[in-house]
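Priority: low. Protein: Lipocalin-like domain-containing protein. Input follows.
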Amino acid sequence: MISPPIQRGSVSMHNIFTAAVLGLVVCASGAASAGETMRSELIGSWKLVTNYDQFADGSTRDTWGPGSQGLVVFTPEGTFSAVIVGGDRAAKAGTVPTDPVGPAIAYFGAYDVDESARTFTTRVWQSTFPQWRGLSLMRKVEELNADHLKVVASPITDPSGRQFVPHLAFDRVK
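Result:
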């Protein structure tokens, strides 16, 4: 025979147990979907609005020059493509698309998101900068919402031996 729930005031132990189990289920499902939150917010097309490199001494440089433009696209399938073209690039006679003029980078591959660390890592399949081919490049997400994405890349050492950290900000393409 099933005994009636033990009463404690106006709330039964059965109701408390049921509420506790439901609470755990809600928390568990929330944790699972939270792991997808940053990834789902990242998916789409993002237009570069600002970028700069910051050195250890606090000084900065305009990475790609005034008027630079860029676009990064993250797909639901886990692939990405990115391109940045420096500003103030003059046309040059006698060139072809296979020999670009001025500063530019394009690369593509796959990406993973680490929700708890607030990072995404791109695995570069191919790049106009051959040194990046096959590398995994981590980006720390400083801001991500429906309209804005701000990331900080891992430190890079330039040819002179100075280390800098790239900062990039994007607006969602609508």
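The longest helix spans residues 13-42. The mean pLDDT is 82.
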